[in-house]
Design goal:
36% helix, 5 helices, globular
Length: 159
């Protein structure tokens, strides 16, 4: 499996997966606008040349917000999400972020478990954030501190 930076030429393949997964998918314009922002990092996960996941990060001062984390249904449970998350955390650290934030569907227990593994904790709920569903707001603070670095080292050893 390869994880690399997403480019504008990847957007058509990403859109296919986006439309498969989400009832309200992002548009081509949204992806291209995001890719054009210097404060954004977007990753693509490929398995034998096939897009199996993508993820995004927005850094604003000391906060890094995960904008999207998507894994193809057939690739779920294979470690794609964990590998992309590690790359996003590395990007946040490289940008000198101190905190990570995200929203996740209340019903998405596997994703919540992954985020907890990376030190995220629930801090609130956004009502009706998704179509007919609330979002759980999760934060991981102090990502540049020793205890978080030790957490990352343990996860890396497992990978």
């Amino acid at each position: 499996m390869e994880i690399r930076a997403m480019t504008p030429s990847d957007v058509p393949a990403v859109l296919e997966l986006e439309q498969l997964i989400y009832p309200e998918p992002w548009s081509e314009k949204v992806f291209n606008d995001e890719l054009a922002q210097p404060s954004r990092v977007y990753l693509l996960a490929l398995d034998d040349g096939e897009v199996v996941g993508y993820s995004g990060l927005m850094v604003v001062f000391e906060d890094a917000h995960i904008t999207t984390m998507s894994v193809a249904p057939a690739a779920r449970g294979s470690g794609v999400g964990q590998r992309m998350m590690m790359k996003l955390v590395d990007a946040a650290l490289a940008a000198e972020a101190e905190h990570l934030t995200l929203e996740v569907r209340m019903s998405n227990d596997p994703a919540q478990a992954l985020y907890r593994k990376f030190g995220f904790a629930p801090v609130g709920v956004r009502k009706d954030y998704y179509l007919n569903e609330d979002a759980l707001i999760m934060w991981a603070s102090g990502i540049n501190e020793d205890d978080y670095q030790q957490r990352l080292a343990r996860i890396r050893e497992e990978m």
